[in-house]
Amino acid sequence: MTEKTEAMTRERVTGRPRLLIPQTAGFVYCPGCHEPLVARAIAEALEEMGMGDETIGVFDIGCNSFLLGMLDIDSVLTPHGRPPDMATAIKHVYPDNIVFTVQGDGGLLAIGADPLLGVLTRAEKITIMMLNNAVYGTTGGQMAPTSLVGQKTTTTPEGRDAIKSGFPIHAAEMIATFKGTAYSARGAVNNPYNYERTREYIKVAFGKQMSKAGFSFIEILVACPPNWHLSPIDSLKWMEEKMIPEFPLGEFKNVDKIE
Amino acid sequence: MSKRVALEASFATAEAARMADVDVVAAYPITPQTHVPERLAEMVANGELKAAYIPVESEHSAMSACLGAAAVGARTFTATAGQGLELMHEVVYVASSMRYPVVMAICNRALSAPLSVWCDHSDAMAVRDTGWIQVFCQNNQEAFDMTLWAFRVGEDPKVLFPVMIHFDGFTLSHVTEPMILPEQSEVDTFLPKFQYPFALNPDKPMTHGAFGLPEIYSETKIAQEVAFRKSKDVAIQGFKEFGDIFGRYYHLVESYRTEDAKTLLLTMGSFTETAKIVIDRKRDNGEMVGLVSLRLWRPFPFEEFRQAVKNAETLIVFDRCISSGGPGGPVSSEVRAALYDEKEKPRVVSFIGGLGGRDMSLSDFEYVIERGNEIAEKGSEELFETVGVRGKVTGIRG
After folding, report:
1. Cβ of B34 under 8 Å from any chain A Cβ?
2. What is the CATH number of domain A29-254?
3. ipTM
4. Chain A window 48-107: which residues touch B at a Cβ cutoff of 8 Å?
5. Does residue A9 have a pLDDT over 80?
6. Does domain B3-246 have CATH number 3.40.50.970?
7. pLDDT, mean over chain B
8. How would you label B169-205 residue by residue, b for 16+ Cβ within 10 Å and e otherwise?
9. B255-386: what CATH class?
10. What chain A residue is nearest to B114 in terms of C-alpha separation?
C-alpha cells in the first residue's frame, strides 16, 4: 500500500481536520511521540469553534517547533522561551483574535519562566499550552523542571535526586493560584478518553479569550519514548503509572469573570 | 603513560575539565553543546569528578552561576553554543570585567533566524569584544589541549581573565577522532591548583563589581584593557610550557607550508584541516601557496600575524560569518586593519561561506584560492565574494 492510499484510508475512518496539514515525507516526530496528537486536538478544537481563520499560533524552540508545520494557521517561531512575550504583543494588536502559544516544559518553566511570570502578573488574555514530557526532548533528554524524582535523564544519570536538584514543578496547579488566571487545566492524549477531554480543555481555554475573561493555560502530558528509553507501549504504561499520579489530570481553575 | 583514545570534541573538552579537577560546572543544554554537560554530569554522578554540577534554567543563569562560583575562588567551567551564547551575552561581559577566569567551551553554531543548529562563526564573532581570551580549535585534540591551556592562562595571577575555546559545532563537537589523553600527573605538573587572589572571604571582606561612576569607569576599563593585552605574553608562555610537558607545541598564529608562498589562505577552526589538503595538492603542482590560521583570536596577535603574512603578495581570508552591512567578513576586516599601516603588505581578498552548516569541500577551497588570485590580479568592485551560494548574487558591493 502506498503512502497516499494509507493516508486516504485513515482519512475515511476518522476524518482529517481541514487545519491539519497531511504529513507524508519528512515527518519529523519519533515513533510513539504524542505531540502530533496535540496538533490534531488544536486543529479539531479550532475547527469546531469555527475559529481556524481567526487564530495565530506562537511556537517555541523545541520539538513543538515542528507542530508549526502541521497546522494550517498563521504561525510564528520565537527565540527560546519567548512565546508569551510575542503572543502578548500580537494579542494587543489583534485583541479579537485567538492567540495561543505552544511550548515545552523547558521552554516555559526553565528558560522561559520570566516571560511566563510577566504574562501571569499582567493577566494577559492569551492561551499558553505547555507540553510536559518530563525531559528536555529536542536536546537529548536532560533533566527538565518537570522531571520526576528518581527519573533517569542524561544530566541525572543516577536518577533525579531531590536533595541536589529539587522536585518537579506542577505548572497547572501553580498557575491556577494567580488571580488573573481564568482557566488552568492539565490533560493528556495517551488514550481516546483523555484525548477528547484535552480537546475540550483547549476549546474552553480559547473560549476564555473570546469572552475576554482572562489568562488561560493548559498543560498536556506527552510521551517521549526515545528519551524515556521505553517503547511507545511501555511509555503509555509509564505515563499511567508514574506521570499521571505525579501530575493529576483535570481542571484547576475555571471562572468566567475575574473579580 | 598517556593513552590514545577516540573521542569527539565535546567529550575531549569534558575530559580536560575533569583532569583540570573543576569545582563547579553550571550549564544549560543547547544543541550542539549537549554532550559536554551530559558527560560532566555523568562524571559527577559516578564519582570520577568531585564537583558541583548545577543544571540551571538558562544560559543567562549558567554564566551568572559561574560568576558566583568564580567569586569564591572555585575553578569554574561551562559550555554553550549559538543562541545560548547570545542569551548569556550580558553576563559574558561581566565575567571578564570582574576578572573571573571562567573557562567556557563554545560549539560554534549559526544564529537565528532562520533557526539553525549547524555550524558557522556568527556566535563567536558576536562576542568578539567582550574581553575574553579566545582561541579556535582545528581538531578534537586541540579541544582538549586548549581547555587545559585555558585554565593555565586564565588563572595566571598576571592574567585573571575568562577564556573561550571555540570548536565547530557538529564538525568537531560530534565527530569522533583519535587523540592523546595525557596522564593525570602530567596535567597536575602543567596546571597548578587554582588560587584566586581576590576570592570572597568572610574573614577579609571585600566588594566585587561595585558601581562605576563616570569618575572611575574609564580608568577601570583602560586598566582592564592594558591587562588584557598583556595576557598575550602568558598565552605564549602557556603554549611553551604545554609543549614542554605534552610534546605538542602551539602558536598564536599557525602557519602551514608558507615558505616562499606568494598566496596565503587564512582560515579558522575546522576549515583549516580541509584547507591543508588543498594546499598540499597545490604545492604538489608547484603552486606557491600556503595557509595561515589564527589560533588566538583575542587578544588579536598583531605582531605574530604581521610576521606570518609579511612576505605574501595575496592574502585570501575565508570567513564563516557575515558582518551585516560592514566591511566584509569580521576576520577579513580585522586583518585589513592589522595591516593598514604596514608599508609592505599583501592584498587582502575576502570570501564568505560555510554559513549555517553548509559544507565546504576541497573543490570549494580550490575555487577560493584560484578566484582569490584572480581578484588580486584584476581587482574587484565587490567587498567580498560568496562561496557555494545559489542565486545570482556572488558578491556584495559596498
Report:
1. yes
2. 3.40.50.970
3. 0.88
4. 61, 65, 77, 79-81
5. no
6. yes
7. 97
8. bbbbbbeeeebebbeeebbeebbeebebebeeeeeee
9. alpha beta
10. A77
